[in-house]
Amino acid sequence: MAKLREFILYCFCGVVGVTTDYIVFLYLLKLDLWYQSANFLGYLSGTFVSFFLNRKFTFAIKDKVYLRLIKFLMVGAAGYSSSVIMLWLLVDLALLKAEIAKLILLPVIVIIQYSINRKITFKASK
Known about the structure:
This protein is mainly alpha-helical. It has one domain (2-121). Helix content is 84%, strand content 0%. The protein contains four helices and no strands.
C-alpha cells in the first residue's frame, strides 16, 4: 500500500512537472521555435519542478540534494533522449502534430522515469 501511495504522489508531482513541460513547450511553439528545441526547454523546466516536488513530498528526502539532483537530471536525460526519438518518429514519420505527439509520449516517459528514480535517485541513504 505504501508503494501505491508513493506512486500516486509521484504521479501527482509528475503531473505538475509535465504540465510545466507542456505549457513551456506550447508557448515556445507559438514563438515559432523548432519543436525539438521547445521539447528540450519544456522538458528541462518540468524536470526541475518534478525533482523539487518529489524530493519534498513523495520521497521526503532531505540529504544529498545536489547529488540527487544530478542523478535525477541523468535519469531525465535518458527520458529526454527517448522523447526526442519518439517525438521525431511521431512528428516526422507518422506526421502527427507536435502537440499531439508530445501528449502521447509523456505517460510512457513518466512510468519509466518513476521506476528508475525510485531505485536510484531517491533511494534512502544508509
